[in-house]
Structure formats: C-alpha cells, structure tokens
Amino acid sequence: MRSKVLFLCTGNSCRSQMAEGFLRHLNGERFEAYSAGTQPSRVNPMAIEVMAEKGIDISQHRSKNATEYLGRHFPYIITVCDNAKEHCPIFPGPSIRLHWSLPDPAEAQGTHEEKLAMFRAVRDEVEARIREFVSEPQQHKSAPH
Question: Which of 15, 75, 82, 105 is most exposed by smallest CB count within 10 Å?
Fold first, then answer.
C-alpha cells in the first residue's frame, strides 16, 4: 500500500504542484502524491514550463483547496511555504508533518527569462528535497503529530 503525501502551500500554483509532480515521477510506486492550497488559485504556466524541462507534465494539474481533503488521513503532510504552515487545516489521524520553507517563484520580478531562472531554482530545490525524502525514509519516523 502506498503512503499518501499531501503538499500544502498558499495558492497551490507552483511549489506544491512541483512537489506533487516530482514525487509521482520519482517514486509513484511507493507514494501517492496530492497537493492543495489554503487559498487556491491556478497552476502557474511557468511552473508547467519548468517542469516540462525535466520531462514532467503537470499541465493537467488543477489548483485545489485544502478543504477538499478534510476528513482524509495523510501519513505525511508537507508544507512548502510559511503561510501554509501557519494556516494548515487539521487532518484526522497521526501524521508526520514536515516544513520546507521555499521561496515563492511567482513573486519573481524582471524579464521572462529572469522569472524563469527563479522558477528553475525553486524547481531544483523541490527536486532535491523530494529525492532526499524518498531516499531516506528513516528521517521521517519522528513521532506523528
């Protein structure tokens, strides 16, 4: 049985979408990946673009409200922004909660290329964290919250 992982951020437009895409791509046989936002918006086209550069298609993802998952149990809940950590809803059952404070690439300023550079940097950090998460499960065996 695959462990469910919920990635939460504010808009569910960039960071959590990338994390969901990477986890499915890198270890979908062991984990079931979900993402949601505390104030969902839409999947950012630049997130879709930089993930496609890695061969991962998130173009069919949609921005979801965390309330869609209330009542469901997730063994792992990972917040990817400080705002989501502060406003994370309560989910039933014991969960291991992790927090990855990632910058919001949607706030990048400048030319299209400068913005893409920020999206790529965040994408690469998300990928590194997902690779660490799937390769070292013993780190996640802290007491459930």
Answer: 82
Order of strands across the sheet with 31-37? Answer: 31-37, 3-9, 76-79, 96-99
| Residue 14 falls in the annotated catalytic set | no
Q: Which pLDDT does position 123 carry in this prediction?
A: 98
Report how far apart the first and last C-alpha atoms of the chain are (Å, whole number).
21
- Decide if 88 is catalytic: yes
Q: What is the pLDDT of residues 75-96, one digit of tens each?
A: 999 999 877 666 666 676 788 9
Highest mean pLDDT among 86-90, 124-128, 138-142: 124-128
pLDDT in tens, 6-21: 999 988 999 999 999 9
Q: Is 23 left (phi over 0), alpha (psi -120 to 50) or beta?
A: alpha
Q: Which domain holds residue 130?
A: 3-135
Catalytic residue among 5, 6, 8, 9: 9
Whether 140 is covered by a domain: the verdict is no
Residue 14, in any domain of the structure: yes
